[in-house]
Amino acid sequence: MRYSLFFAIGLLTAMSFSSCGEDAFTQIVDIELPEHEPRLAVHALAFSESDAFGVLVSNSRSVLSKEEFSVFPDAEIQFSGPNVEGVTFSYAPDDGRHYTELSQGWAAGDEVYTLDIQQTDYPSIRAQQRMPRAPIVLDVTVDEEGALSESGERLDEIVIEIQDEPGEHYYALQGEVDYQYVDENNDTIAGYYSVWLESNDPILSYAEVDRRGALICSDGAFNGNTYRFATYTWEDLPIGLMSGSKLRIRVTSLSRDAFLYYRSLDQYWGADGNPFAEPVTVHSNIENGYGIFGLGHTTIYEIDL
Q1: What residues are paired with 79 via a beta bridge?
Q2: Cα separation of 156 and 177, whole Å?
Q3: What is the pLDDT of residue 240?
Q4: Which domains occur in the chain, in start order?
Q5: Fewer Cβ atoms within 10 A, N terminus or C terminus of the chain?
């Protein structure tokens, strides 16, 4: 009996070694990858304070494609909703976008706007967005050298106080300075420059909104309450130096899709070139296609410097 047990153990050991050949744990499965179906790709973001709305209409490409994307001058675009019915678009070959002029005050808060696009070689696409209400800005204050940067340097602090309404809201903060002075020839010189805002507040993150730097956030941390955004800038604010100079703060209430697009786009570029970063998919909301249609309602608050 003892020898039979030893024989059985030896037989099992020999079988286990014989099964550990080169292909013992290898299985080859052929997977047929579906071909990419090209569709229209759209970039369309409209802001309440802008009287021009530009729409880029191109096409998608597969990951392995080496072809350049195309733009379509013949695309037919319809933008519908309160105060925009009947607007027409014209193609601008210098940047490949279609533009239309919008009337002042066109944006109606809580109203739905629809974008329809047709092009003969692709399925028609549609997207809808609800225009947010204009954000309520209570106050903006500037404290010269009142903030500390992450590296401990003294910088000008800009505090933006808002009243958040109940519900889900998303914000973008931007700034610029209008300056004016009289030179040695007694000529009045006027102009403006962007003020790039930064913050140590963890709910704020950076993004480019309407081609300008911005701080963005959701209202998850202060829903329905007042909130003070403590920001600072590396720009030189002409505090008390130029008569007539103003700080202009833009607070924009973004549609949810616009916020998700801007945030994911910044995360995408942040992960680009990093082999250890998790891949990021840029947010899209185009039915039957790709891209973004988003809206923003802006309140501008000015203070004298």
Answers
A1: 115
A2: 13
A3: 67
A4: 40-130 (2.60.40), 136-281+296-304 (2.60.40)
A5: N
